[in-house]
Predict the 3D structure of the following.
Amino acid sequence: MTAGLLLAAGAGRRMGTPKALVHDTDGTSWLKRAVRALTDGGCSRVYVVLGAAAGDARALLDGLDVEVVVADDWADGMSASLRAGLGAVTGEDAALVSLVDLPDVGAGVVARVLASGSGAAVLARASYDGRPGHPVLIGRDHWERVASTVTGDVGARAYLAAREVTLVECGDLATGRDVDAPTPGQRRRT
């Protein structure tokens, strides 16, 4: 069993608002879309890590079957969110870590990465035209070491670079690009 772990705690300084609160002009919530991608892609349970504007973001999750985790130290960067999320997951052998600001990463990408391996020792990640990206599949055997080595806004990049990680090509399904600045089709709505 693999949990989906959605990191959505940041303030979104370059975006001008927390990315967990961003909606496209058609009203589609990035937060809800990311949760659906994890659920529809095959994750057994979804954990959502919130921080900045946690109350407003939590309200967007009403009615969804998710576990909300609040990273009190979210301002320290992605590492704080990742530590909080991994610390909250219970019962699953692995966690598929994704980010709220990947609007074109859908259930197909999630399913493909999940199909690449399983178990407590697994390490795999999506790649887009050969470029490593998210989501990242991290087996339970790695969680404690990942949590103890991540710092700032970098996440598990250095940990993964020092290990054999299965790359799962997903460039035919998505770009995997994170969105850091607003475009005309995005807005904040609570």
